[in-house]
Amino acid sequence: xxxxxxxxxxxxxxxxxxxxxxxxxxxxxxxxxxxxxxxxxxxxxxxxxxxxxxxxxxxxxxxxxxxxxxxxxxxxxxxxxxxxxxxxxxxxxxxxxxxxxxxxxxxxxxxxxxxxxxxxxxxxxxxxxxxxxxxxxxxxxxxxxxxxxxxxxxxxxxxxxxxxxxxxxxxxxxxxxxxxxxxxxxxxxxxxxxxxxxxxxxxxxxxxxxxxxxxxxxxxxxxxxxxxxxxxxxxxxxxxxxxxxxxxxxxxxxxxxxxxxxxxxxxxxxxxxxxxxxxxxxxxxxxxxxxxxxxxxxxxxxxxxxxxxxxxxxxxxxxxxxxxxxxxxxxxxxxxxxxxxxxxxxxxxxxxxxxxxxxxxxxxxxxxxxxxxxxxxxxxxxxxxxxxxxxxxxxxxxxxxxxxxxxxxxxxxxxxxxxxxxxxxxxxxxxxxxxxxxxxxxxxxxxxxxxxxxxxxxxxxxxxxxxxxxxxxxxxxxxxxxxxxxxxxxxxxxxxxxxxxxxxxxxxxxxxxxxxxxxxxxxxxxxxxxxxxxx
Length: 535
Known about the structure:
37% of the residues lie in helices and 17% in strands. The protein has helices at 28-37, 58-64, 78-86, 101-111, 132-170, 196-206, 219-224, 263-267, 283-289, 304-314, 340-347, 378-391, 414-419, 441-467, 506-532, and strands at 5-10, 13-18, 21-22, 45-48, 70-74, 94-97, 118-121, 187-190, 211-215, 231-234, 254-258, 272-277, 294-298, 320-323, 365-369, 372-376, 397-400, 410-412, 476-477, 492-494, 499-501. The strands form 5 sheets. The protein has a 9-stranded parallel sheet, with helices on both faces. A 4-stranded parallel sheet has the order 6-5-4-7, sandwiched between helices. Helix 5 (132-170) packs across helix 15 (506-532). The longest helix is centred in the first third of the chain and has 39 residues, at 132-170. Residues 424-435 have low confidence and may be disordered.
């Protein structure tokens, strides 16, 4: 035991003195119990108990724990961590941690994010104040992880069927895929935020020297200034995404789109490369990644702007200059002029109906931005955080004239951005897509046909077993058919291995049977398209 650590028996429980400081109040056990009783603990609560030391208050907490509650006890001090470990109660609901967010998130994922709805903190010792910033950071990381999990779950419930349906339909277009060749040199990634307008002059001047990557909503802005990008990234699954391309008469760029995106977008583009976004860890997604014609496999990045930066980095571009990725709004201004949102607002304006403010009605919060406080939403702030994690510790990412939230890029003005480029291009850079070659259509057609036929056979057999009264293993869905759970996402407990359901009653299986019939029709449609287009 450390000489700085002294345990003292008192009539009211054991007192701990550490580094000349008493870690409990004058009455250690009653004081800790009182602090525990002061907190309301609802079902599905993850409790963070920083620096528990001797675990005073555990008996009170144990009897008050509601179902599906767990206690995470982080301890940053090595001496106190060892003391807590030696006195750790023998209860599986307690997890002793070091005070690192990464370890806490790993423990949360092992326990299952679906078990928790909220995170609360219970503090019973003075040592919890010593490393307060670390404990607060850990608490914030857990709250963010649970919030993102349930946001994704709600998004899956609302959009899951559309994404899977689009992916099945887009398989028929893979034989016409045109991969993008790797490239070096600088890239400019354009979002549709207000700061894009400040970078237009720079983009037009330096256009021959850079690979220009634009998100779909920035395409009309660039087109209005006579600028044609090399790559346009479109990942949205809804039909409304097709409207982003209506003002553009020519398709002189290379489209990068996702299998879960609207099939209409790829059909009107002569050159398209494909990505697969793992919007949920379905085994179907893993199988789609192995299809010929799929060039990128992307994690669930949320924002098309984040995906555009990721694609530019994967191509080997350096440095990467970002503009229009603001993740913030100001009164009357949410996008650059000429973006689809602005054009839609203007088209709906008349003498009796002024230009609407898209920012009105949004739940805006004030957050620190690149050049002072800005107004944003929690969703946009999440996208900015995701972009920061995507960039990581790269030192070659710059933000041109940033307006909104900071995401870890070095801010530069449009004039300073010129200094980030090579003085002269080493070689004449060809336009993206000019050096791209189509893949072997016959080979891709054969492999995709075999893939679709196998998926259809598997799903048809499952539907037949349900209609014949066959019952799958209790609370489990066959791993290869895990995408059916988008029809019962309110009853999912885990995506690891065979998908487990919270309830596996007759109503659930009827819902899954209806879903199976629906996807059988989708697979058959794709199979007919492949048969009709056989080279």
